[in-house]
Amino acid sequence: MLEDALIPLSITLKVAVLSTCLVAVFGILISYALARRDFRGKWLADILVTLPLVLPPTVTGYLLVVLLGKNGAIGSFLFETTGWSLLFTWHAAVIAAFVVSLPLMVKTTASAISAVDRELEYAAYTLGHSELETMLFVTLPLAKKGILAGIVLSFARAVGEFGATLMVAGNIPGKTNTMSLSIYTAFQSGNDALANILVITLVVVSLLSMALAARFVDRWSV
Amino acid sequence: MGVKVSLSKKYRSRGRKGGRDDVFSLDVSFEVGNELVVIFGRSGSGKTTTLRCIAGLETPECGSIIVNGKTYFDSDSGIDLQPQYRRPGYVFQNYALFPHMDVRKNIVYGLKGWDTAKKEDRLFEMLRLLHIEGLEGRYPSQLSGGQKQRVALARALAPSPDILLLDEPFSALDMVVRMRLRERIKTIQKELGIPILFITHSPEEAISLADRVVVLHEGQVHQSGSPREVFYSPVDRDVAELVGVSNIFEDGDVVGNSPEGFVLEGRGMQFVTSSDVSGSDTVSWGVRPENIHLMAYDEGLLSDEGNVFAGNVLDVTDKGSSKLIAVELDGSNVVLFCDVPTRLLDEAMGSRVIVKIAAKDVLVFE
Questions:
Q1: Which of A96, A142, B327, B366 could form a disulfide with B311 if both were Cys (CB 3.0 to 4.6 A apart)?
Q2: The ABC transmembrane type-1 domain covers which part of the protein (chain A) (predicted)?
Q3: In the predicted model, what is the mean pLDDT of residues B116-133?
Q4: What is the mean pLDDT of residues A193-210?
């Protein structure tokens, strides 16, 4: 019984932590580009990143299957060059979590970056610092609260991800059965005891991550 | 050596409330030495954009910018150095101190690649130069406006820039702090010998600070010269208004000579000026409000000499150290504004007054 709860917990944490790391890195870069750079097709990039926020997760999942499947644009390339099939692995769950939580990261981070006074960046330029250095030591530190909020939201979203994960990674016991999926399975099969344990664990994990984030925000306040 | 700027740029300026955006065209050129240059003009005259173009924060459409022999920008040869390679000392209007760094980190932020000991030396040198020793551990939020301004100056000067650019640096400071900082800037210019370009819309700041004034109006340089030249021989009406000549007579006639100079007639009044207007038939002229002398009415004072008029006081505005008095001259609808120091004000003066203007104070332009 305990193992039935621990395995989904470890899969969920693995998937959520990894996807949140990816979301943090790519989210910050995309947010910076959207907030500070002018480039062709910026509006399109903005829409593409935001889309998973408004699409039902099953639709997002379906589109991912189309892209990542053996016949899909990315999936077929991957299969032909490496012989590796992405679908129905925990990696696919990471990608699903990444795609659905990226808009949360980008929306909060981009608005936090936009709120940083541009004059401060210009001041750094006149003091001889490159755009990258300025981003790392001026812009991002000043936007850190928004960035952290984005990371927390993304992590929460990744932990709770259900629909898209089910579509691309399935619900394979011991491989891709995350907490959210396991709760559904346990509930469906009438295993209320397991469902209760999973639900309580999930609530505790969520509360812990929120509390941890709040502590960071406090410590970081200038 | 010095700064040679010639640039043009068109951009959308914020339209007036409810109105559409106007296309503003900036077309500025001036050449100045290693001196304290005040770029003077109203808000929206293109001062800040000019400064930002020099710093490399904005790009002109064409022209060239050369500072101390180094070409920052040249549209003909395609040179456009990034601000990182121009490294001007730039003091922003809102100071732009990094709020997450203390004063020490702010000041040494431009000293990239220096070793720690040299950085520390330079930090204390800057703190001393600007009289802000002891503030190095504070954060910008813990500083007063004047202190922030000094830190911003220290940060801009620390890397020994080739040029110092200041964008209305004192506009948010009170009078006393302002006066002290002005003196500081003057001393710094003398000590460092670099060109300093200082933006202001305050005539008082321009005259008290500048070695040279560049007057900008609606995107064009109207006059460039010593403060004396600009303030006492404005070249046109726009400059005259900007430097505070509030009594302006437009398109009057030159009607003859007098022992003191030339007689001008406009709006039904005759004025005598010592400026040379031979060769022109119509001119505009003006009188600074502080150059008008007011006396209590006395028939004996009226004479055939020029520039003595009788009039009635319409309005008095107290400006503290002086009073602004509006006088309507007899036999005309001309209202002169006179700025009279409160301590020199004739107590016996009633609503009837005599107005007297020296011929040299009738400034002719155009």
A1: B327
A2: 9-213
A3: 94
A4: 91
